[in-house]
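TICKET #2291
ISSUE: user wants both folds in one file
ATTACHMENT 1:
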Amino acid sequence: MAFAQNNDASNLYKRGLAATCANCHGTNGKGVVDGGMPLINNLTSEQILSQLKAFKSGAREGTIMPQLAKGYSDEQLETIANQLGKKQ
């Protein structure tokens, strides 16, 4: 029972991290019609993680994403990428 609760809490945590992206990129990265934000649902987890790390390090410029990415640990960025990345 405790294992199930821990697993549920872990999944909720992971989904919660990924849900922070939905405000701009839409639910599950499917985008918002005419929202002007890049669609991310066509990217693999590795591609998303690469972009998130580039924003965090400053290698990729942006308006909001560099600020957001710097607020997450590398582990959290990996979790977000794994949650949102296109499953192959």
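ATTACHMENT 2:
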Amino acid sequence: MYHSFEVDRVDHRLWLSTSQQGYRLHLRDQVIAPVAFTQHSESSGILTIAGEREPVRFAIDGDLIHLHIRGRTRIVHYNDPLRALTTANDETRPLIARAPMPGVVVATTVSPGQSVSAGMALMMIESMKLETIIHSPQDGIVDRIHVKEGESFEHDAVLVTLSEEGR
């Protein structure tokens, strides 16, 4: 069975198969081997891909994985294949940016009334010592910023509400 992950609003389908050296990673028409992960703690480990070792820090929150590797933090969203099939025809997109985990707003990069495009940075948050950029889920206009810089929030809190342009 394949697995589907979304990174920067791009869906990546992949799967693992076993080999004599461990695992092979199948990504589109590429096969990368060997692939291994050695977990060192609850939130860190070493990822080895084709002989290159990279230290990795991560936090898992439901379907979201906050991954820090090579000096960058990325949010990886696991798309359950069965759930994706049931919502394949649902074209509604959220008009809100929610908190992927509890944390504190470090900086806000937009203001109410500002036009934003899908994927544009809205704010930076810190959670579990990881700084993460919250991106706009779609094109729109910033209607309201619910959490100010320095304020804390809980998981799934609404951080920014957008309105559709032209409404």
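RESOLUTION: both attachments delivered.
EXTRA DETAIL ON ATTACHMENT 2: The CA atoms of residues 17 and 24 lie 5 Å apart.
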